[in-house]
Amino acid sequence: MYTGSRLIELLELQHQRRSQSGLFKKDTFTIQWRAKVGSFPHPDVETIVSAGEPCGAWRPTQGRPEDKRNVNENWQLFRVLPLNGYIPGASIRGIVRAWAKQRPDILPRMYELLGYQNNDTIRAGKIEFLDAWPDEPTKLTLDIVNPQQEFQVYHQGQGTPLSLYTLGDGKDYIPVTVAIRGIPGRATDAEVSEVWGWVQQALSLYGVGSRTASGYGTLKFSDPLKPTPDPDCTVKQFDFSLYSQGSAGPNMQTMELRPSHWRGWLRSWILRFLLGVMSQQDAKKTVDELLGTLEPQTRKGCLRLQMLKGKIWGDYSTDQPRFYAWKGKLQISAPKDILNTIILPIIRFAVMVGGVGRGWRRPLHIFHMNNGHAAARGTLLTLTHKLRNKNTQEWETKPYALPLDAATWTKAYQDWLAAVQSQWSDRVTADNHNINAEVFSPNTCAIYAVPGPDSEPIERREMLWNYANDAEATRGDGMYLIYQKDAPQNYKRNPEIGGNAGGGNASCSWASIKRVNIHNKEEETDCQEIVCLFMGGQTPNSNHVRSRFLRDLGKMSGAVHLFGVQPPTNP
Amino acid sequence: MSDFRVGYIYSLAPIHCGGEGDLGNILEIAREVHTNFPYVPGSSLRGTLRDEVKLQDETAVDILFGKELDKQGQMGVHQVWFGDARLLWVPMRTMSMNGGRDVFSWVSCHSLIRDHAIITQQSSVIFPNQAVGISAGTYLVADAQIQVTQMSNEQKQATTLAGTWPNSLKSAVQPTWENNRIVLPDADFQVLMEHSLWTQVRNKIQDETTGANQAGSAEVFWTDVCIPRDTIFYFSWGYSLLKDKPVKPEQHDVLMSVLQGLFQVGGQANVGRGWVQGWTNNAASPCPVKVGV
Questions:
Q1: Which residues in chain A have their CB less than 8 angstroms from residue B168's CB?
Q2: In which element (H, E) is residue A418 found?
């Protein structure tokens, strides 16, 4: 028996019978991905669980509910919890209040209609928010929290993935009925309509629940509605296309692309850049101000990210080894200056030197494992945006990228640095920031464009490999170099340069390689690879393996230096 | 009291009638002194019905509930009265049966069934000191295994509700209720009422950074306790008509349209708590002839 949405159905009818229809508003909003909203106290006192109502038993065969299980065990035993999820009215009311507090022209009206507390004075509102239940009973499903900043940027040990339960499984859209009502005798029809407009705006703009800045809780309203950004904020929308070895969520074998992949990508790249111009402490503080943090002291950030799925979502190649495709929209919002002068330039660099999600440091290519089996590895990420043509005034789709010339890269970085200096003048220092971490700056990394492969290894439209039987044909000279495993190079599976994804002691590579479909005139290849090497505390002329890798890059035929350090001219 | 009736309410949202919480940041609810069971005080029920009737008919409300205290210190006499709304059937959603399928069942206990039987003038039945239900079997709830034996026809009769279910619940709820009920001994039911109520963790987010409190952190958090959705309560109510200006049929009809509709009881109405569907076993107009004051 499921009576979740019964109240709203009956209450609407009662308002109609009593000629009070104007005091009642309801509509369907659709959860686009997952929502973590409200809280249900999980017996283990640790796992975060979205609001839910019990709808079944915890079975003894699944272990005791109060046991602490890792994500993998939860995947085996508690992929769904016996809880029907819903969105508490309190969460909807809270988000509407938070939305109104950003709008000085609405704020006094919000206090008048929704009530307020001022020390000991409590003034009641006129509008009531009802719990929003999915149209069909929907159990909460397992999700994962897996911060990788320490691992990916500082090359320190991997974090422990934690379980989380959300309304939404990441695949299905979930329609929920949201409703408000004006208190008869106190609220007018016009006031209810006014608040309903706020509900539509707030839910469409922010979504609902926690982690909304990371893409959780994104809601789509049934009517086409373009929400107005917060004052002084702006939104940048990209169309993305990602061909990839596959990213995963709570289960390593189930491929999915998540907003959290984008969030981690954005956070880590912002940190890499800031580490190049600030102390570690200030860089962390600045990242926390931009993106928020939980520990040691929780604070919200000012950057928000939402991912909208496109028609091609998790499709996989028709031949082996299997690769996947995701296409959709990525929306990033932030205060205008921060977004335009600090965040977007970082994104332009990031998309030029790597991809997103699992395998982001390698171009999509074929790799042979120790047992001889072929596997797809790496990613192919493209971002495009719409620009208005100054002559025709028509909107045109353009790649979001940098041309392969050093002057443009240097200028883009200098402009970014000037913006950071202007924003945080007291934090920017000219110190040597070449620490044992991935630091993006002219003194701590090196970027080269190198030739190859000869032509695009995949047929994008058909989702096929062009050279399924020739793994090396899928790689350029950068990949060829980093796969050198014998002395003197020893690059492959070397934690100090190539990284090692397998085994329990995984380590990241210190070089990211991205394929671009730009012709290399010298070597006559259709494609090139952009190799970004992080020195991680090493200098170009040392004997360290990364310094040797830099020297190999520098002397590679057809290689073009784009940015950062270079090997000494007379080693 | 010659006009004595029975009413029911069915919760379509969790109900929070505030009580005296003394467990840190747990917001407790009102409980009966003699049983410690949560309940909806008659004053809450009466207050909400009064407000709703007032919206429909400002004259009828004073006739039915008595005039409110005015500036001259005068107040009227009520002609309709309401008792506390007590639990009758509480949903248990965490049960499985015979170790297998999940079952949604309502549970009650001996004393509640007995008290309800008394006010509905049904013959009382002695229940055994073990669980009985519509479907016999082994039920599992958390660590507890409950052996439920089949209710006898007499016991089943003693658990019936007076009157007929409202149309709004007839198809959505009534068939499930008819097939899924368990009567527990009082002591077992008391444990459930102590530990198995509806809870929700809530927090208020810090708006702006003030001192050590950063914007976006939890300024304050607490746990709300509520009586769950899908709970069935019973209450006694009736008329005590005055000789002068007794309740007229049209005024009674206004009350019936409210009492047999949806109304809201308890606190936290602004976040959707407290909505119930009401109905009564006797919706007939009170008969002045039989009234004695």
A1: 6, 10
A2: helix A406-423
CB contact under 8 A, B94 and A11: no
Beta bridge partners of B227: B15
CB atoms within 10 A of CB B178: 12
Is B198 near chain A, with CB under 8 Å? yes
**Measured between alpha carbons, how far is A492 from A484 in angstroms, rounded to an integer?**
6
| Percent of the residues in chain A that have a pLDDT greater than 90, as a whole number | 87
The share of chain B scoring above pLDDT 70, in percent, equals 96
Give pLDDT tens digits for A330-365: 999 999 999 999 999 999 999 999 999 999 999 999
By the CB < 8 Å criterion, does B271 face chain A?
A: yes
Report pLDDT digits (tens) over A149-205: 899 999 998 888 999 999 999 999 999 999 999 999 999 999 999 999 999 999 999
Considering only residues 110 to 129 of chain B, which have any Cβ-Cβ distance to chain A shorter than 8 Å? none
pLDDT at residue B289 in the model: 54
Report the alpha-carbon distance of residue A540 to residue A554 in Å, rounded.
11
Closest partner residue to A56 (CB to CB) among B102, B204, B261 is B102
For residue B66, what pLDDT is reported? 94
Chain B contact set for A82 (CB, 8 A):
94, 102
Residue B87 half-sphere exposure toward CB, CA atoms < 13 A: 32
3-state SS record for A104-140: CCCHHHHHHHHEEEECCEEEECCEEECCEEECCCCEE
Strands A304-316 and A324-335: antiparallel
Q: Is the pTM value of this prediction over 0.90?
A: yes
Taking only the tens place, the pLDDT of each residue in B33-42 is 899 899 999 9
pLDDT, residue B292, reads 46
Q: How far is B212 from chain A (nearest CA, A)?
A: 9
Instruction: Calculate the average pLDDT of chain B.
Output: 90
Token digits of residue A508 = 């990241």
A130 touches chain B (CB under 8 A): yes
The verdict on a CB contact (< 8 Å) between B102 and A53 is: no
Instruction: Assess whether pLDDT exceeds 90 at residue B100.
Output: no
A185 touches chain B (CB under 8 A): yes
Chains A–B, number of C-beta pairs less than 8 Å apart: 123
Q: Is A32 helix (H, G, I), strand (E, B) or coil?
A: coil
Nearest-Cα distance to chain B for A340, in Å, is 24
Do B36 and A153 touch, CB atoms closer than 8 A?
no
What are the distances in angstroms from CA B47 to CA A251, B28, B43, B94? Answer: 53, 21, 6, 34
Nearest C-alpha in A relative to B261: A14
* Residue B177, H or E segment: helix B174-179
CB contact under 8 A, B271 and A51: no
The confidence score (pLDDT) of residue B293 equals: 44
Residue A571, pLDDT > 70, answer no
Beta bridge partners of A190: none
How far apart CA B140 and CA B128 sit, in angstroms, is: 20
3-state secondary structure of A282: helix
Check CB contact of B104 with chain A, cutoff 8 Å: yes
User: Does the CB of B157 have a partner CB in chain A at under 8 Å?
Assistant: no
Residue type, A44: D
B201 to chain A, any CB pair closer than 8 A? The answer is yes
Tokens 């009291």 appear where?
Answer: B1
DSSP structure class, residue B19: -
pLDDT tier at B99, thresholds 50, 70, 90: low
Helix (H) or strand (E) holding A295: none
Cβ distance A299 to B217 less than 8 Å, yes or no, reads: yes
Token digits of residue B44: 């809450």
B115–chain A nearest CA distance, Å: 28
A297 at interface of B, judged by CB pairs closer than 8 A = yes
Q: What is the pLDDT of residue B18?
A: 83
With an 8 Å Cβ cutoff, are B270 and A56 in contact? Answer: no
